[in-house]
Specification:
This protein has 385 residues and is an alpha+beta fold. Among the domains are: 90 residues, no CATH class; 81 residues, no CATH class. It is 28% helix and 29% strand. It is built from 12 helices and 22 strands. β17 and β18 form a beta hairpin. α3 packs across α5. The longest helix is centred in the middle third of the chain and has 17 residues. It is globular. The structure holds zinc ion (2 copies).
């Protein structure tokens, strides 16, 4: 077993390990030009262009305003100066810092640990340099907060940690690791939810790897509708652990079913114009108003025409590709199952499994084939040998 681990060592060196902190761009969806920053707990050392900010001990509210390619920094009383970069480094215990976007106007958010404000592509860029585990707890709240079991929070924290670490190069060209949007993982700042904090702590450092000890692509979605999808049917590249499985745990959950009416005229003109589908042919017409899927299909087919279901899903913004079509008087009724791309772990199925007493380990190996749960510390150990 040990030999197996060591020979597989080379493959785990493909991600930079991460002794502790992540660089997350926050407020990354807005063109920010004025911001209020206020340390509210712990102790902060504030540096502007490499120099300590002298008034920082007295003031605890700072305004940062974009001016050309610089940032003007002010306290409530006076202007401190004009800088390229301002860094708030937490040096106490439990350092928490609040920010509020002024232009454009936004809500107050609070973050753990450190904050770095600079100018990038004509706007202000805010980076939260945050302890990995505290970031993960914030992401678990963003992705699954509110309505589930502690066992599910544990599971979600492992998924989010694995995802974060396998995607640390996602924004490398812009100089940070991840953004705070669903593009990476949704992160609204620190969580105060005690269940999420304790559940994340219970899985500290745990990640999912495949048989070669590579971090997996921990794909998940809301509800698979009863069958998950082979990943190559959505993203072209096959992965051994993202295989289609039958899932009976989600079929009575909130997003198991959906319906959508589309006028027959819109449906036919879409098929004819976009896909050159022969709508005048009566057999083809009938086929287009009476489509079904016993198990998950990949294409809507007619003779030599093959339309990927994911294309239809995207064009009509349907909840899933797992649908059938029935004719109504002037419309076609899409009856669908599930919500999301269907690859990997089904969140509603997994939540139900935790309620039925399954552990997060049982659930991970149910949705991801042939994977192992390992501790980052043991990966570090093999890295150092
Ligand atoms: Zn991103
Ligand atoms: Zn499911």
């Amino acid at each position: 077993m040990r030999t197996f681990f060591i020979t597989a060592l080379a493959s785990i060196l493909t991600f930079p390990v991460i002794a502790g902190t992540m660089d997350i761009r926050v407020l990354s969806d807005i063109n920010l030009s004025s911001l209020i920053v206020s340390p509210i707990s712990g102790q902060y050392a504030i540096m502007a262009d490499g120099q300590p900010v002298s008034d920082s001990a007295k003031a605890n509210i700072f305004q940062l305003i974009l001016e050309g390619d610089s940032i003007v920094m002010k306290t409530l009383e006076k202007k401190i100066g004009k800088f390229a970069k301002v860094i708030f480094t937490g040096v106490g215990k439990n350092n928490i810092i609040k920010i509020k976007s002024v232009v454009p106007a936004g809500r107050i958010r609070s973050y753990d640990d450190h904050l770095e404000v600079s100018v990038y592509a004509a706007y202000m860029k805010v980076i939260n340099k945050v302890d990995l585990e505290r970031y993960i707890a914030g992401v678990v709240e963003g992705e699954a907060g509110g309505v589930t079991t502690n066992e599910y929070y544990k599971l979600q924290s492992i998924l989010c940690r694995t995802y974060a670490l396998s995607n640390v190069r996602r924004h490398e060209l812009e100089g940070h690791q991840l953004c705070d949007l669903v593009h990476c993982q949704y992160y609204r700042g620190r969580t105060t939810d005690a269940d999420i904090i304790s559940s994340t702590a219970a899985t500290k450092g745990m990640v999912i790897v495949d048989g070669s000890l590579n971090l997996i692509t921990a794909a998940f979605h809301s509800n698979c509708g009863g069958q998950t999808v082979n990943c190559e049917d959505v993203w072209a590249i096959p992965l051994s652990y993202l295989r289609s499985i039958k899932d009976t745990f989600c079929i009575r959950q909130p997003h198991a079913k959906w319906k959508r009416n589309i006028s027959t005229e819109d449906w036919m003109s879409y098929l004819a114009l976009k896909h050159k589908y022969p709508v005048e042919d009566s057999l083809s017409f009938n086929n287009a108003v009476s489509f079904g899927q016993a198990g998950r299909a990949v294409y809507f087919k007619d003779k030599d025409i093959k339309i990927p279901l994911k294309t239809i899903r995207g064009d009509f913004q349907l909840k899933s590709t797992y649908f059938s079509i029935e004719q109504r008087t002037d419309s076609v009724l899409f009856r669908g199952r599930g919500y999301g791309h269907g690859v990997g772990l089904c969140q509603e199925g997994a939540m139900n499994m935790t309620k039925l007493g399954y552990s997060f380990k049982d659930i991970l190996v149910y949705y991801y084939k042939g994977v192992h749960l390992v501790d980052l510390a043991s990966l570090e150990f093999f890295r150092e040998e």
